[in-house]
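Run log, item B.
One chain of 494 residues. Sequence copied directly from the ordering sheet:
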Amino acid sequence: MAEKITPRSEDYSRWYLDVIRDAELAESSPVRGCMVIRPYGFALWEAIRDGLDRRFKATGHVNAYFPLFIPMSYLAREAEHVDGFAKECAVVTHHRLIAGPDGGLVPDPEAKLEEPLVVRPTSETIIGSSFSNWVQSYRDLPLLINQWANVVRWELRTRPFLRTTEFLWQEGHTAHATEAEAVEETLRMLDVYADFAINDAAIPVIKGRKSARERFAGAVDTYAIEAMMGNGWALQAGTSHYLGTNFAKAFDIQFLDRENVKQYCHTTSWGLSTRMVGAAIMAHGDDQGLRLPPVMAPIQAVIVPIWRKDPERVLVMEHAAKVKAALEAAGVRVKLDTRDDVSPGYKFNDWEMRGVPVRVEIGPRDVEGDAVVLGRRDVPGKEGKQFGIPAAQVGEAVCNLLVEIQAGLLRQATEFRDANTRSVSSYDAFRQLIDGDGGFIRVHWAGSDEDEDTIKEETKATIRCFPEGAEEGEGVCFYTGKRTTQVALFARAY
């Protein structure tokens, strides 16, 4: 029997860890800061991967793969980049182990690498090296590449899915002839991320440009989708970077233009990781566990057969098999729970905790009536149940429910975000709100980088982004008192 999930109101962080444990999404590994992603958790990542991959290919990108190991000298070529990642890098210095004096294994002093290798924290440098070989002429552009990979960043404080030493992600890398084309690509991929977040993950994200302090190391501009979690904190769910010619100059990515003149490419990079799994947990979960949006859910409907006597079991299971086939024919990802060693009530709670959107109940009366009972995960109790659904209509009925649930979760998340987004005009009011209800705080902003650092130190809140399309006219900066038209979104964030 799973342990009781801590209520969100009692300890939100504990609730999050409890859900991951009980839903069997992930567990700790022998390596500090790393996690074992269990099959159900990996199925969620596969849904994210597949949803994004379709979108990438529809926009002309192709997949490739680049080495896990990066020569240390490559990182040093771009000064801001190396400064941004130096403290997080894992480094390989030897290629062989030998027996030590105490019987254990130690690096062989004779097997020291001529140049240390950095375990990939991100791939701009190693991919830049390949791009310099692949791009010769304007005819080779645009170059649109994506890779699905793992990366390592030596984090001090880790949390499953949200921040781990090793994590899974995709990283797109593109090269273009002009700044305008590269900026267009940067914003287009931001739109792709937002489309996925809204329509697949049912998370109403806010698109915007990051501040200089939050910008990717080596980028000219960074853009992000920002999501609000169930406790009012923000989560940066995906980023897209315009890199200018910084990496092109560092790795000699040049092309002959139409006038036969050599030019440096303008490049981009963009990424989304397994933290999107954490986003789905925290954006939709409740005190009973997960509530998964149907588009992402590994199992969209679970069939729970109910019987007391063996003769009933035979009839119920035959009916359940027929219903399962009908749902599969309708394109529903369905599971028939055939466990005999646990009660129907246990199964109800188990699948509810795992966030399966629709439960199909079949008992002897349903067999007699050639019907089923449908239960919605997003609407608790009898209110969320539909009785006497004809078996012949179960495929259509479940598909309609899945559409309703997907829309309902997005609507609920949007209403929660909007209710917890407020504006203030003074720093005192800002601090009271951050220390109280939290959420997103919209302000006019004319502060410096140093002002942003001070606010972060004093309140733990950061500028999440300068929201796209935020046109509120001229106002007074809540911190400096200067007049400005720039609007910033502050929040505490994971």
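Observations after the first pass:
- The CA atoms of residues 365 and 371 lie 8 Å apart.
- The longest helix spans residues 394-419.
Flagged for discussion on Thursday.
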